[in-house]
Each structure stands twice: as C-alpha cells, then as structure tokens.
Amino acid sequence: METTKKRQVIVTTERRGVFYGTLESYDEDARKAVLLNARMAIYWGTTRGLLELADTGPTAKSKISAPAERIQLEVCECVIDVSAGAVEAWKRAV
C-alpha cells in the first residue's frame, strides 16, 4: 500500500542508512520511500539513540550530510515521524 501524505520523517534502511526529509511517498509492500529535501545522518551524535533525532533533532556532535532535492530509498526498515522542534533542528544542522 502506498501513502502520499507529506510529513517530516526519518527513514532507516536495511543497510543502516538514516535519512531525514519530507515524505513524498512510501510503499510499505515494496519497502520503498521517496524523500524530498533529504539529509543523511552520517553520525548521530546523540546520547539517547536514534529516536532522539526524531524527538529533538541532531545535536552539536551530529554529522549531517548536504541536502539532496529528492531521493528514493530501497529496503526501508522504519519510518519515524519527526517532532516540530526536531524539524527546526534539522533545518539548522550543518
């Protein structure tokens, strides 16, 4: 089943990729997601694990990639909604 509700999410992949962006589409059966304005968490830099990135966003110790306008992710494991405060932190991350 494909969903197209646009929301800010973190998507993890089977190959341990951690990506943030606006969810353009997600096909749960095919395990594929398309993100707009995507960023990759190269190093989380958190003290409370992955979900801290969704709750409060990247920390000063996090290493975040440059943005990509649109990416398609394959073999997605998890789609996590991001809080409003975390969205702002992701926008500021360098």
Q: What is the CATH architecture term?
A: Roll
For the secondary structure, the number of strands is 7
Largest sheet: 7 strands, antiparallel
Percent of residues in β-strands: over 45%
Shape: globular
Helical amount among residues, as a percent range?
Answer: 10-25%
Structural class: alpha+beta
The domain count comes to 1
Separation, N- and C-terminal Cα atoms: 35 Å
Q: What is the averaged pLDDT score?
A: 94
Count of alpha and pi helical runs: 2
CATH-derived topology: SH3 type barrels
Name of the CATH first level: Mainly Beta
The radius of gyration is: 12 Å
**Unreliable stretches covering 5 or more consecutive residues:** none
Q: State the order of secondary-structure elements, H for helix, E for strand.
A: EEEEHEEEH
Question: What does this protein structure show overall?
Answer:
22% of the residues are buried. The radius of gyration is 12 Å and the shape is globular. The protein is α+β, with helices and mostly antiparallel strands and 94 residues long. The chain has a single domain, classed as SH3 type barrels (Roll), CATH 2.30.30.100. The protein has helices at 50-55, 84-92, and strands at residues 2-3, 8-13, 18-27, 32-43, 63-64, 68-73, 76-81. Strands 1, 2, 3, 4, 5, 6 and 7 form a 7-stranded antiparallel sheet that branches. The chain has 2 helices and 7 strands. A hairpin with a 4-residue loop joins strand 2 (8-13) and strand 3 (18-27).
